[in-house]
Amino acid sequence: MNFFLDTNTLIYYFKDQGHVAKNLLAVSPKQIFIPSTVVSELQVGIHKSTSPQKRTMQLHALLESVSITSFGHEEALTAAKTRAALEAKGTSIGLYDILIAATALKNSATLITRNTKEFERVDGLAVENWY
């Protein structure tokens, strides 16, 4: 099983909150993936951070041991279908979240997030909360 980490999961990991670190260490790094969209969101946070050097070092250390999954053509098609389906039901989620969900869906992975209420709206997406 492969696990894709949502932005909030990584923030909790970096701040040593909840049980994220324990759960992350219980899984092989080969099973851990970070969507490129999440990397972008984290970089925005780093640029706004009061300690950007520390946060940059934390991110780089993690990225050395896990894989980054790019958002490509197939993920874009899945994102468009997902967004249209959610909007038709009146249960839309944020744009970044749609991109993250589509990346996990396209790669048949479980999304690790504390934001389960939002992501559980996406049909077919496996979601776990490691907090």
Keyword list:
single chain, 131 residues, alpha/beta, Rossmann fold, 5 strands, 55% helix, 12% strand, globular
Helical residues, percent: 40-55%
The side-by-side strand order for the widest beta sheet comes to 3-2-1-4-5
% residues in beta strands: 5-15%
By CATH's scheme, which homologous superfamily applies? 5'-nuclease
- Structural class given helices, strands, pairing? alpha/beta
Biggest pleated sheet: 5 strands, parallel
- The tally of structural domains comes to 1
**Could you name the CATH topology?**
Rossmann fold
Structure write-up:
Strand 4 (110-112), helix 7 and strand 5 form a beta-alpha-beta unit. The chain has a five-stranded parallel sheet. Helix 3 (36-48) packs antiparallel against helix 4. 55% of the residues lie in helices and 12% in strands. The protein is built from seven helices and five strands. With 131 residues, it is α/β, with parallel strands linked by helices.
